Amino acid sequence: MLAVLSFLILGWTDSRRFFPDAFPRELEPVQVLTYALGGVMLAAAAFGAARGPRGVASGIVFGLLCAATGWCASRWPQLSRAISLCGGVFLGLIIEGTMTLALGATECVFALALLRKDWRPIRLRVIGAALAAWVLTTAATEIVLTRIWSFGPRTLAEAADVPDNRHARRMAVAWLYPTRGRAHHIDARLMSSETVDLSPQSLGRLKEFLTRTDFRGIFAQEALAALRLGYLQWWDEEMALEAMMIAVPGRAHPDYLRALQLIRAGPLSQERYDRLVRLAGLSGRRVEGFERAGDSQMIFEGFSAAFARFGDETNARVWLKRIEGLWAVSEKPIEVGALEDLREGRVEGAVFVDGSPAVGLRVGLFYVWNSSAARTTQYWLSGSLIPNEDGRFAFQGLGPGRYVLALLGRSEDLRGGYEGVPEFIDVTYERPEVVLRDIRIVRETAPRPSYHRGAKAAPRVPLRLSPR
Asked: Domains in the chain, please, with CATH?
């Protein structure tokens, strides 16, 4: 009977989920009633069996005390998770790990106060102090988290009033470079994060949410990460760079690596150089974003390479020297990358869908970066635009390097036959201006065959491309 009672009482702290939710589950009213009534009945029976009829009253009191402290304990899995999301990760883990032990110790104190005769003079004070500690601590923590840290909503979608990821729009990206044995390939893309929709309207609401909460709240970090991801998904390089550079002391720090990627891949304009200088100034003496030596090394090298790309050797060497304070990364001294002074690189072309200008698509230019250390190839967003009424586009102010094109649009507009795929685009000092062949897409308009039981499938007719 005591084993069942103990299991029932300590069950107040059991509120886990095994799939990704922002918070553990909350107890349902039926569960609360079951815990409370079960605890009172079992406690009365256990005390009565031990002390006879006179112990029943003590058992009922014990059960009621267990129900009161148990309800408080049932709130702490939510509160500890909220504390972790607010930045107190270590404190949240400690609370979560010790909550069951604390509840069990409190119930033992209640039992001793009710059963031991030598505790009678201090019985009410001990019980009142233990009960007050649970009630006041729980209430005060919940009030502070609610008023200051926006505790209450269960998800970012609810807090920022945006749809969840189940309502996200499906798009497609056509990568116009050879891979997988083909001249181009198309990837499906769900415009969402792991939890929320990232449509332009949702991005606006997420930005308003961060401004309204002043980047302080339970969902602030998740909202900022979703905002940065959303601008990258829609190839909005200017807004993405601004989002990567957001810095609020103690609440948000810049995403240095992705900001440096956008700066190095984008046009080498004076405005971009000014942003690079501002990003370098944001680092200052802060540790946010530089907690690990490996990440710090990549950030320092990124700053050095970015300044070198703008031809600023002095600042490039300043950032390169910071690596020496981390560790001896190699016996060979690291040198500044090649200084670049090409600013007039240009890539222009035109894109058509079924013979008409593709004004409904977005053309993206990506800088190809080959990492010798990781032996990987990365494609950094350089810029994007919508073709004009004639279907033409032009990217200007580019530095030397290899680039590729991609198209973002609806899957029905990108599915079909392609002509004029540009493959890899090399902008060099000898050839700073690259004029591409017209990119022409002939959409698949034939309906897909329907299959019925007992019927043969209609043969597929190969798609014929229109002449160049």
From this structure: 2-149 (1.20.120), 156-171+183-325 (1.25.40), 345-443 (2.60.40.10)
Q: What is the pLDDT of residues 2-55, one digit of tens each?
A: 788 888 888 888 876 654 556 888 888 898 999 899 989 999 998 888 888 888
| Interatomic CA distance for residues 91 and 75, integer angstroms | 16
The predicted model scores a pTM of: 0.81
Question: What is the rounded CA–CA span in Å between residue 151 and residue 86?
Answer: 10
Q: Hey, what long-range contacts does 247-251 have (CB within 8 A, 24 or more apart)?
A: 247/282, 248/214, 248/215, 249/286, 251/214, 251/215, 251/216, 251/220
Fill in the amino acid letter for 98. T
Condensed to tens digits (0 to 9), the pLDDT of residues 47-74 reads: 888 888 888 999 999 999 999 999 999 9
**pLDDT band (50, 70, 90) for residue 230:** very high
Given a cut of 70, whether residue 336 has pLDDT beyond it is no
Residues 6+ apart with CB under 8 A from 243: 224, 227, 228, 231
Output the CA angle 329-335-338, nearest 5 degrees: 135
Q: CB neighbours of 119 closer than 8 A, spacing ≥ 6? A: 112, 113, 126
Buried b (16+ CB within 10 A) or exposed e, 382-391: bbbeebeeeb
Residues contacting 127, CB < 8 A, separation 6+ = 65, 109, 110, 113, 114
pLDDT of the residue at 5? 85
* Interior angle at CA 264, CA 261 and CA 270, nearest 5: 130
Q: Tokens for 432, please give them.
A: 């700073």
Beta strand 439-443 with 345-353 is: parallel
Q: Evaluate whether 193 touches 229 at the Cβ level (below 8 Å).
A: yes
